[in-house]
Amino acid sequence: MKSKIIAVIPARHGSKRLPGKNTMLMCGEPLITHTLRLAIQCEFFDNIIITSDDLKIFRIYTNEFENDPRVSFVFRPEDLACDETLMWEVVEHACSEFDQDTIVVLLQPTSPLREIKDITNALSLFNICKKFGVVGVSWEYPDHEMRINGAIYINYLGTIVNSRSFIYPGTLVYVMPKNKSIDIDTIDDFVQAEMEMYKDE
Questions:
Q1: pTM over 0.85
Q2: What pairs with residue 138 in β-bridges?
Q3: Domain membership of residue 14 as a residue range
């Protein structure tokens, strides 16, 4: 039986360095909307789950995406929306109704420059060796070091929960260009990502 493939988009309200970043307008739309629209364009996703404690994000969902049968919203409890919360806990809660062999593709809204081809290619890499997960990375120059870029994480739901992590020895890497790997954590990151997005228009 073919495993379901679901996208999980985590977007909590709290952010110390850049408050409210998931709903800040980037190129005229809330930041999270860019990731949601991209996920919807990926026809291979059986379900797309937004997990959040933010009422602004819930309103974005109800106003624009509620009528899409693949998109759903899961309210995240307070104890899973704090700085100490681990992402595997968020995924376990959001995906509680899915089988352990469900393939989870984690897409953080703070990486808005990934493209459909990145998700498709990362999934193809995962399908080559399903024993291990896949994580998006970029090369850092001049140090020539790989850095996890936060754009894509893929693994089976059961493996994520049992390992209590998306990353462990043997995890495969999907290399993305540095200009597509901006992970928004500060206002400078936000401005840089928006400039890159304008370049693509």
A1: yes
A2: 147
A3: 5-200
The percentage of residues in the chain with a pLDDT greater than 70, rounded to a whole number, is 98
Rounded distance between C-alpha atoms, residue 159 and residue 97, angstroms: 16
Structure tokens at 142: 């001049």
pLDDT band at 159 (very low <50, low <70, confident <90, very high): very high
Rounded Cα distance, 107 and 14, in Å: 18
Q: Tell me the CATH number at 80.
A: 3.90.550.10
Domains held by the chain: number: 1
CA pair distance 199, 65, nearest whole angstrom:
27
> To which H or E segment does residue 30 belong?
strand 29-30
How far apart (Å, rounded) are the C-alpha atoms in residues 172 and 100?
Answer: 20
Q: What is the pLDDT of residue 12?
A: 87
Instruction: Give the C-alpha separation, 120 to 42, whole Å.
Output: 8
Give bridge partners of residue 120 from the DSSP assignment. Answer: none
pLDDT of residue 187 exceeding 90: yes
For the chain, the straight-line distance linking the first and the last C-alpha, in angstroms and rounded, comes to: 40
Determine whether 170 is exposed, middle or buried from the number of CB atoms within 10 Å of its CB (0-12, 13-18, 19+).
exposed
| Measured distance CA(52)–CA(78) in Å, rounded | 10
Average pLDDT score over residue span 116-128: 94
